[in-house]
Structure formats: structure tokens, C-alpha cells
Input
Amino acid sequence: MLEIGSLLAGRYEIREKIGVGGMSCVFKAFDHTLNRNVAIKALKTEFSEDPTFLAKFKAEAQSAACLAHPNIVNIYDVGADNGVNYIVMEYIEGITLKTYIELKGRLDFKESVSIAIQVAKGIEDAHKHHIVHRDIKPQNIMISNEGKAIVTDFGIARAASADTVKSDTMGSVHYISPEQARNGFVDGKSDIYSLGIVMYEMVTGRVPFTADTPVAVAVAHLQDEIVRPSVYAPDLPVSMEGIIMKCTQKNSGRRYETMTDLLNDLKRAHNFPDEDFVVIAEEEGARTILVSPDDINAVRSRNAVEADDDSKDYEDVEEDDDSGFLNPKMEKAVTILGIVAGVVIAGMVIFLICSMLGLFKFGSSSSGDAEDTEETVEVPDILGMTYDEALEELNEAGLGIKIVSYGDSDEYSEDEIMSQNPESGEEVEANTTIEVVISNGESDDDDAEEATMIDVTGMSEDEAKDALEEANISYGTTTYSYSDDVDAGDVISTDPAAGETIDDSTVVTITVSRGTQTVSVPTVTGLKKKKAVSTLEDSGFEVTVKEAYSDTVDKGYVIKQSPSAGSTVETGTTVTITVSLGEETTYVSVPDVTGDSISSAQSTLKNYGLKCSYTEEYSDSVEKGVVISQSPASGSSVEEGTTVTLVVSKGPETTVETEEDSGE
Output
């Protein structure tokens, strides 16, 4: 194994050990060729002669090397030196998400959803390259000092076929999907499940299943229901809880179809955390499948084999029960579960065929397809309807309903809807919840007492509601908007505004700040200037263009950008791009070498960075070997390396006198 201070492959100086896994060690090293810190994963000596482990190790490099994404660790090099097989990776200054959670106890919603979005972007890119990670957990997610989340360790990643891949190895037991636990078929939905467990741990500070043995934890993933995260995090927005619950469905068909679908909902939750828009498909005719003793024994048998847990890439993680399950010898369990799976699949096929033929009819509320959330519908007018009438009307349109308050009304009778948000005619996404205020009927006081609307701007949402209640003013609904001036969670404005005349029938809507809107900086390095500028401007950024010479980047293409790609910044931030001018050209002034000897002229031109060629001609006035003329002329500005052509004297032309000419 590598020693501290040793030099690997003639360039990587090993400086410290930063992690130990089941089959490899990770070191911090310095690359003397490129003058930068790197992380080196070296296969342990005892595995270097084993073809199976070598193939697995190389597969990791191949899996990650084809990926280039700001939220995935970069692979720089792979090789072998003096019997040491190694992978050279990007060195990330930071800590694992596992350590980060342990330090903070649990993360708030805003931080959790931001990290989840970054991780989902990285995994989404891997899935687009047909790579399933299969070991998503906080230990394999680095949080850099700049706050960027980076997915690491593709040690058990597997290229997916057009359908699925068979799981003959599993990730850490606390985060594995049910199909991994029973050695079933694994695809991108397994990563979605594991990311759901990671999100659960971020918002609650705990994993959903714990037990004395890894087997018990694995069985819990197979058959136990997850306690809703809001039990441990009462302040968790409904959107985030819905996302987590959908990700962690035991039936993969009820999870998000793709990582892109999950990412879309995470972005929506980031912007509208209190919207109850996540819909989980109903499991028609489903029944609970208990794990038999034979299945449990089969799972237990796999625990007898020490698994590779390379999740400890950047730190030692004390989780003995993460040792994994790698033994594929569980034929009996596979046979039993294969029969069950066959029955389930057959039922699903029959269900799908009947659905396509129109034999089954379902309301829109039972549709869990991610595509449905992308559709938009027009909000119907439900003012004047009762709750039950509005419920039926909205459900037919694919929308939900929520009563937010009650209020007096001279226009609407008791139990009729007196206001709705969004209003009728607006286009909204399918499954949006429409908030309504129900009328209490006319006020008991025929002469409604007038008052002045109080000022609650700048207060937190809860403080504003308390102030309205104390002033006997009815609160209606809350809307949300980004603001550069008002802190997130504080009230931007009210309707009616402060100072306006109100009465007992007035219902107030408050608008709460989401803070400054932040966006991720797109990658524009390597793009042509025009394309880079339009990409940034279309994303809401201001653009400043600088120019610089480059020996490696063609003229007109972007050399670098600041802030860097993937950085999370405020909307409207100025991004500075540096555009290549191509190779730098040096110009020199041609010296006057006429009258110089040819050797002196050549030396002078060489000192000026110019080349020289010459021709000769006779001259009665210029001594032999002396420069008669030059081109370009002296004083001309030319590129360095230009050839100056000289005309050199051969001296006077001589004639040979014949005998006839001499008169002899």
C-alpha cells in the first residue's frame, strides 16, 4: 500500500490518508505535473491480484469518467504503478453530508431542498448516460466549502440496459431500495428511493429504519411503513413531505418515473413549499407482501460476506451495519420472489391493457404520473358554490381544494365560497390546490364597523397573523413572492394595504417574501461568445465580456467564466466571461540593414525576431557582400518571424577580354 511521502506514477506525492473503505484506501496527494491537490483511491494490496475486484475497480473509473457535471466528482486519471491500482479524482475541500447532518442535528427545509436539487442534478446526468449509482447515501455526497453538493463513489455503479439490471451487490443497508434488499432488478428508481431516504435524514436528522442487525434493517425496507417525516419535523412543508414519501414507496411503480420528474418537483417545492401538489398513484388491488422466513434467511446469508463499503472515501464512518450484502447465493428467495413478481407483473399488464381499453375509470385525483403535473388547466369559477359542489367541480378539472378561513359576506350566503386563490380563468398546473374562504353569511351587525388596516409589513408570517387576530381583522390567504428587499419569511405587502379603510367583512391576503431568488450558473466555457452571452442572458444574468489571448482556445470561444458553472447566485448577478483572442501576435519594426554586410544584416534581423533570405546582383556602386536593398523596407511594422528579403551586391560585373578584342 502507498506510504505517506511516496511518489506514485512519478507525479502524485502522497500526503495523507483521508479514508478507508472495504477494498480501497483514499489519500490526499499533490499532482506535481499540474500543481494541484487530488484525491487518490488505491485498491488494497490483498485485492490487487483478484480479477473480480480489479474488474470492479476499473468499472468504477469507467462509470464516473464518462460523466462531466458540476455535481459529480471529476475523474482525472486511472492507472497502475508498482502493483498499485489507482484512480485519481478531484479533491474536494469540505465534509460529507453525513458529517454535516451530524454537526447540525437536522437541516432546515431551504437548505435540504437546495442540497437535494444539486444531488438530483448530478444523478440525473448519470442516468442520462445510462449509469445507475446504486449507493446513494450521505457518506457519498460531499458538501464543499463553497456549499456545493457533489456526488462521489461510483464503486458499485452499473451501466443500465434498455430495461433494468440485476442487483448482485447492494449499497449501505440504511439507504438501499427494497428491490436491492431482495436482490431484485435495479434501475434509476432505486437511486430515487435512496435519495428519498437521504432527504428524510436531512429534514429529520435520522434514518427511517434502525435495528440491531443489518438484516433487520433490510427487512424493514421490504415490509415496514415509513413514519412520515413531519412527525419528527413538524415545521416541514407539505410539498417536501410529499416528495419524500413518493420517493420512498416500496413499489417502484409508485415512485417518480425519472430523476428529472423528481427534480422538477423539488424545484417547485423550493419556490412554493406550502403547495400540496405531490400526487402518489393509487395501488389498485394491491396487497401487502410479507417477507417470509426463507426470504429473511436468504437476506441474512448475504450478510455473511463482507461487502465493499467504499462510501468512506473522505472519512471513517462508524457504521458496522453498512457492511452490505454481496453474496448472490440466495436462489430459494429469488425463486419465491420471482413467482410473486410474476403474478404482480401479470396483474399490472392486465391492468394497463384494461386501462387503455377504457374498462377502468378513475378520477384525476388517483393519477400519479409525473407527466400530469406538467399539464396546465384553467381554474373554474367556484364562487357561490358550496364546498361539496366546488370539490366535485375542481376534481373534474384535476384540481384540489383547501379551506383556509371563514369570513362574513353580504354577497354570499352562509357556507358558500366567497373567495378563491388562484382566481377563475388562471392557468395552473394540474393537481394544484385551490385555496378558498367560506362565507359565514351577513354580519350580525347591520352597520359594519369601519376600521383602518394595520401595517404588518416586515413582520414574519406568524407575527402578521397574530397581529391581525389581535386587531380582529380576518386573515384569508397567504401568497408568496421573491423579494430583494424583504427577508425570506417576512411580509412584503397586504391586500388591503396598510392604511386603507376596512370593515368586519374584510378578509386580508398577505404576501410573504421567499427572499432573493437564486439560480444556478450555467456552463458556458467552450461556447462561442454569442452563444455564451445569449445562454446567460436567457437565464436572467447580466454579462460582462473580457478578452484575452490563448494558445489553447480558438479565437471567439469562452476561456473561463466567473462565477463558475454550477454556483448558486442571485438572479441578475453579473457573470464575467473571458473570450479568446487566439494566439497572441507580436509585431516588430523592421531595422535598416542596407549598407551592412550580409553577415551583419542577418545577425541584426535575427535579433529583431525576423528571418532573412537574400539574392545577389552586380553593382558598380556597392561593394561586394554589402546589402543594396531590403523588403519590407526599414520602419515597416510586421509580425515577429516575418522573412525580410535582401538584395546583396556581387560587386562590378567583369568581362573577359578575347584575343580578337586585343588586336592580336
